[in-house]
Each structure stands twice: as C-alpha cells, then as structure tokens.
Design goal:
This is Gustatory receptor. The protein is mainly α. The C terminus is likely disordered. The protein contains 12 helices and 2 strands. The protein has a two-stranded antiparallel ribbon. It is elongated and about 80 Å long.
C-alpha cells in the first residue's frame, strides 16, 4: 500500500510517487523469485507427485504463491479509497475535539505498531522454517519466495487489527465523554451533537470495510481455501493411515491452525469494534430518566436511539459479506461438509 503523508493531516497516493516506484522495483524483483520457485512447484505437482499427500502439499505451496500476483489489484488498485478512509480520521478527530474539548487519544499506538510489525516478520520466518522442517520437498531455497508473501498476509491481519482497535478506542472515548457530559447537563444541544459524532464514527467503520473490500475479500477467500485443503489432507491422512502424528500430519495441522488463527483475529476484532461503537452509547441513553428532561431533549434521545437502530455499525466489504464471528462458523461448516 504505497501511500504517503502529503500536507499535514492528509494521506496521498500517486502512481509516480517515490513509494510507488519502490513498490514497482520490489514487486518485479520478488516476481522473478516467485516465478522461479512457482515453476519448480508446478513441476513437482505435474511430474513428480505420485502419492496423494504429495499432491496436497504441492497444491498448498502453490496456493501460498497466489497472493503475490493479486497485489496490484487488491493493494495498489484501492489506494485512493484507502487515502479517503485515512483522511476521514482527521475530519472525525477535528469534530471530536470541537464537541468534547479534548484530543482523541490512541494509547501506545506507535509502540503497538512496532511490536506487531516485528512480530509479523518473526512469525513468518518461524512458520516457514517449521513447514520446511516438517514437509518434504519444501527446501530453504523455496522459503525465500514465500517470506514476503507470508509477511504480507500477517501484516494485513495486523493492519486490520490496528484499524479496528483505533475505532474501538474512539468509540470508548466518545461514550465516556458523552456519559460525563449528560451527567452534568443533559440537554438537546449536547445529545444532538453527540448523535452527529456517533454517526460519523459509524460511517468511519463502514468506510474501513469499503476501502479494503478487495484486499480482505481475497484475504478471506485465500484463508478459507487454504484451511479447507489442509484440513482435507489432514483428515485423509488419518482415514488412510490412522492417527500417527507424523511430520506430514503435523505440518498440515500447523498450516490449517495458522490460517484459522489469522482468520479468527480478522473476524473477532471487527466484531468487537462493531459492538463497542453502539453498546456503551446505547446504555448511556437508556439510563437517562426521560421524566426529568425537557421535550426537546427527549426527542433528541429518541432520534439518537433510532439512528443507532437504523444504522447498525458493522464492517461490510462493499456488501459482499459482513465481517464478524459468523464468518468463522461458515468456514467450519464448509470444512465439515468437505470432510463428509
């Protein structure tokens, strides 16, 4: 995602910018490596794989190469929409400051980004070395073509987590500030302004899903496909040979568990962010004693509750799917039918 900071508070993208030129060069170099390793993987699949388990491993290794080739479509192709989403944060923070009189805080954000980024790289190295040790035909040379791909997959999950965490922090700060303000002075003016601010935050969550729709639609499909193939291979090994916990079985299980864990984090943090936006604010509104406020305030409270009901905060990938815990259930159901 070769976007960059332009003027203060603005994120920009250009097809001829320095980050984009770096992306071109890096993509070409890694493409050569991926094509070379991919050719060897296809040769193993078509000419050297004789056993069923060897076919499964070859398919999994080829699947892991696919994300490299969709980068221009799911990464660069949505850069303008991502810039619009990121710039919306500046507008929301300004509105938050005007209404609450406080700056919106994101505790330990810089530290979190550094730790997660290093963790993604280390996790990718450990994962690839584990597969190289457990699965036949996956040499250390082959891992060089997969390192940036696995790191990118991890980083996509981390990016989604950080975005959802930021929205969760904003929703908590908004709810706490709203609760404090209505405790001191519950009037129509305050409720109306917080309603507008809440709608802006809900729209920000929807923009997150729309901006990264291509990225995370393909991300989810990749994870589901990989989990299905790995689980199918693992269960087939058990059916044919019984539970032996051989290197092959453990390798397939590690692969399926790894992808399922990333998919769970992706879905769960979206679910949590959606809940946090509406839950605390709704509780604060429901706790207001309507008999003690004037008619204008009662009307604004009703409008606020109606806005929450009519505009449920949810992460939708441009209508293709809603990202929540039910997506995990769908994967489990698919794998159950596949195994049957």
């Amino acid at each position: 995602m070769p976007v960059q900071r332009g003027q203060i508070g603005r994120i920009t993208f250009s097809w001829t910018s320095i980050p984009m030129l770096y992306a071109y060069v890096f993509y070409v170099v890694t493409s050569v490596l991926v094509v070379l390793v991919g050719y060897e993987r296809f040769d193993i699949l078509l000419n050297k794989s004789k056993k069923f388990d060897e076919y499964i491993y070859s398919i999994i290794f080829i699947i892991y190469l696919i994300p490299h080739f969709w980068v221009p479509f799911v990464g660069w192709g949505v850069a303008y929409e991502v810039c619009d989403y990121k710039n919306s944060w500046g507008t929301f923070q300004l509105h938050y400051y005007k209404i609450t009189g406080k700056n919106l805080q994101f505790p330990l954000l810089s530290t979190l980004i550094i730790v997660i980024s290093l963790g993604c790289l280390i996790l990718a190295v450990v994962f690839l070395l584990t597969l190289s040790a457990l699965l036949d035909g996956f040499t250390l040379y082959h891992t060089t073509a997969y390192l940036h791909i696995i790191t990118m997959i991890n980083m996509n999950c981390a990016l989604w987590y950080i975005n959802c965490r930021a929205i969760g922090n904003a929703s908590t700060a908004l709810a706490e500030s709203f609760q404090n303000d209505i405790e001191h002075n519950c009037c129509a003016y305050i409720v109306a302004h917080y309603r507008v601010l809440w709608l802006s935050l809900s729209e920000l969550l929807q923009k997150l899903g729309n901006a990264y729709a291509r990225t995370y639609s393909t991300y989810s499909l990749f994870m589901m496909t990989n989990i299905t193939v790995a689980v199918y291979g693992f269960t087939s090994e058990i059916v044919d040979h019984g539970i032996r916990f051989s290197f092959k079985e453990i390798g397939l299980l590690v692969d399926a568990t790894y992808c399922l864990l990333l998919l769970f984090v992706f879905c769960d943090c979206s679910h949590q962010a959606s809940l946090r936006i509406s839950k605390k604010v709704r509780v604060s509104l429901m706790q207001v004693n309507l008999t003690t406020v004037d008619p204008a305030t009662r009307k604004e409270i009703e409008l606020f509750l109606t806005a929450i009901q009519m505009n449920p905060p949810k992460v939708s990938l441009k209508g293709y799917t809603v990202v929540n815990r039910e997506l995990i259930t769908a994967v489990q159901t698919t794998n159950s039918h596949t195994n049957v």
